Amino acid sequence: MAERALAPAPSDLVDAIVANLGRVVHAPDDILRLVVLCLVAEGHLIIEDFPGVGKTMLAKALARSLDCDFARLQFTPDLLPSDVTGVNVFDQRTNGFEFRPGPVFTNLLLVDEVNRASPKTQAALLECMQESQVSVDGTTYALQRPFMVIATQNPIEYEGTYPLPEAQLDRFTMRVELGYPSLAEEARMLDEQTHVPPLEALVPVAAGDEVLRLAAQAREIYVEESLGRYVVAVLRQTRSDERLYLGASPRAGIALLRVAKARALADGREYLVPDDVKAVAVPVLSHRLILGPEARAAGLGGREIVADALEKTPVPV
User: What predicted TM-score, i.e. pTM, was given to this entire model?
Assistant: First the structure.
């Protein structure tokens, strides 16, 4: 009888996905790793940056790296909520209504330029992201698992954008920025994209059930009580910061702990350490903070506020 193949170690699987992304997206490895950690943490991701730096390419590369269903949705000002979730259509043959699922019925949903749609259409994603389900005309439909929303958006200063409300931002586990590549990387990217784009040759390195297995293993990572209190202390430090209108919510703390657990798993550990929390705190918390006039006048952003909160919070030993 043939021997059963051993499942790859969680750290090896995460490394394989990160390496696959690196074949297409010329961004720092730590950014690509954060994207994969968000997936393992069963979270949702915002990629915010200027047009043309590879936001959509990164989402497509992640989709191609996984043997899962993928859908793309371009947000525009005239998009309706039913275009996102689906709609009941009258069928004359059966003399009844039939539900036509929307693009959210997939494993990986790319929402391109999420801040170009109206707030009403943006809100159609709230139930999907929080509860992995869709309610249409009083009927609830469960979404597939794994389920992840990757939203791209341009900076809110651009014309024709609708800033995401606080409740929507709080449902995104993490926000990352790609930035412009180095001179050598940009020259290599131009050469690749004008010959044979590497995205076309990308093959899956993980299946959907392997992603679910990683997520289940991440949930089992041991967290010592003092570390749980450390996460709460960081949250409360942001809430007491006079430069903020709104600090980090308890939901932000849950997201921070989940991503920190995913990092521990990716590093091959079965327990959490303070460095796991500190390493992911900025991308998990910074987009959830509402800055006051003092912070804006000083040119500060969420990154600096979170870094300051980490600096002021005693680390458990």
Answer: 0.88
